Amino acid sequence: MSLRSMSVLRPALAAVAFCACVPFAGDLLREPALLAQAPAAKPAEPGWVQLFNGKDLTGWVKVGQEQWTVEDGAIYGVGVTKEYGYLRTEQKYADFDLTLRFKVEADGNSGVFFHSDFPAGSVDISQGLQFEIDRVLNHHTGGIYGDGRQWIVWPAPELETVLRPTDWNEMRMRVVGRRYVCYLNGTLMVDFTDPTPKSFDGYISLQLHSGGLGRMRFKDIYLRDLSKR
């Protein structure tokens, strides 16, 4: 997803996007922010599992031809073609808490997709939304985009500088039903209830945007599955 393809938000969504977000009651809010250089441990609440073992890509599936390797205990994604590339989980998730750390090493766009899926043999994502990652100022890291709807919600303007453009960042996300919440470095970026959701279940996917500029690192990836199946 690219800001250059952004459409104008409908007035009702714009009002939600730019208002002061109201924290919700729950353990997500009570989690303290981690310093950029501090080691990230698994969250203390029960039910969390490690999605990335820090050694190899066990549990993950590459979609497309971009390069995904493990380097220094982190997933390292590099754009090597002009196409999109994804690294998705083997398992699908409907509702979940997700926490990870990421570092952006180029100006290529990235994100963490949820409820995503792909046609066989294709990088053309068929469904899903993403929590945006882009170190370019005013490209709305922490906002939500996708499902053929372009921007769903983005953070308030004063939150555009929460991202550390050259250092590690911690992102914590919660998806429960139609409600999407994102914290970046301990700051609430969005807390949004989607009035017209299109996708309800699917893979979690790390993205490299088309154009060949992506260089992303991800580590300390933990998930708590809240799905009721």
What would you say this structure looks like, in words?
The protein is 5% helix and 41% strand. It contains two helices and 15 strands. It has helices at 11-18, 27-30, and strands spanning 48-50, 60-63, 67-71, 74-78, 85-93, 96-104, 110-117, 127-133, 144-146, 151-153, 169-176, 179-184, 187-193, 202-208, 215-225. A hairpin with a 4-residue loop joins strand 9 and strand 10 (151-153). The two termini are 30 Å apart.
Q: What would a concise description of this structure say?
A:
This protein has 229 residues and is mainly β. Helices cover 5% and strands 41% of the residues.
Helix-strand blueprint:
Blueprint (H helix, E strand, L loop, with lengths): L10 H8 L8 H4 L17 E3 L9 E4 L3 E5 L2 E5 L6 E9 L2 E9 L5 E8 L9 E7 L10 E3 L4 E3 L15 E8 L2 E6 L2 E7 L8 E7 L6 E11 L4
Antiparallel strand pairs: 1-15, 2-5, 3-4, 4-15, 5-14, 6-11, 6-15, 7-8, 7-14, 8-9, 9-10, 11-12, 12-13
The helix-and-strand class reads mainly beta
The backbone outline, from C-alpha atoms, is globular
Number of strands: 15
Number of domains: 1
CATH topology name, in short, is Jelly Rolls
Question: How are helices and strands ordered from N to C?
Answer: HHEEEEEEEEEEEEEEE
Poorly predicted ranges (pLDDT <50, ≥5 residues)?
1-37
Q: Biggest β-sheet, characterized?
A: 8 strands, antiparallel
CATH classification, class level: Mainly Beta
